Structure formats: structure tokens, C-alpha cells
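Our preliminary data section would be incomplete without showing what the modeling component actually yields. Below, a chain of 130 amino acids is followed by its predicted structure, encoded as C-alpha cells that our downstream tools consume directly.
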Amino acid sequence: MHMNNYIKLKRGDQKSIVKMMETCRKAVTSGISVLIFPEGTRSTDGELQQFKDGAFILAFDTKTDILPVIINEESVAIAKAGIFMKEKLSIKVRILDEVPYSGFKNSGVRETKKRVYSLMNAELKKLRKR
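Predicted structure:
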């Protein structure tokens, strides 16, 4: 992760959270995309968990569009407590329509988070039916 310049975060450490958000802001404002898993951790049951505020605060602070991406079967690839990927697996990725900043700039973090969660959860359910 270090060699790929991943943005570091120590969960529960307020200083680390502040530094991570600052690093993300700098990246986004300089034109670098940042991939954030809004749940904060992987699910144990494969279901979409409630979203944390960070990604949405970042979108508001930087006036950046949100591009929701669904990854299905990810929890099967690597066990939550593991480090090894299974040899054979099927992962489906779905990139949803961009949620433009202009469409959520007057909504607030909570409402935007709820909207994006609903979009992603509905698409995840559709993806699993196929």
C-alpha cells in the first residue's frame, strides 16, 4: 500500500482521520481521483453497510462529483480477516451514473449519503439477481 501511495488511516485515531481528509482534499483539488469505501470496513455478510460521512464531506468540501461503484462478491475474494485471495472467483463491478455536485450541493451530507446509499443498494440487489 505504501508503494502505491495509498492514503493512510488509523481507524479511531482523530489525528489520523484529519490528516487523511487533508491528504484526500489535496489529491482531489489537484485532479487526482480518490477511491473511498464509504462503509469504512468490509461487510461480514456481503450486504451494504451504513455509510460513514467522510467521503461525502470530502465531496462537499471540494465540490466534487460522486461516482458510485458497486463491487459484488468482494467479501468472497478475501476473507475479512485474511490476506490471501482465492484462486477462482467471480467479481461483478458496476459503475453507476455520476452524481454531479450540482445535484447535491444544496442537500447536505446526511441526505446525499442516504441518496447514494439507496442508489448503490438498489443496483447491488439488481446485480445479484442476474
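Helices lie at 14-29, 54-62, 74-77, 101-104, 109-129. The chain has one domain: 35-129. Preliminary results of this kind motivate Aim 1 of the renewal.
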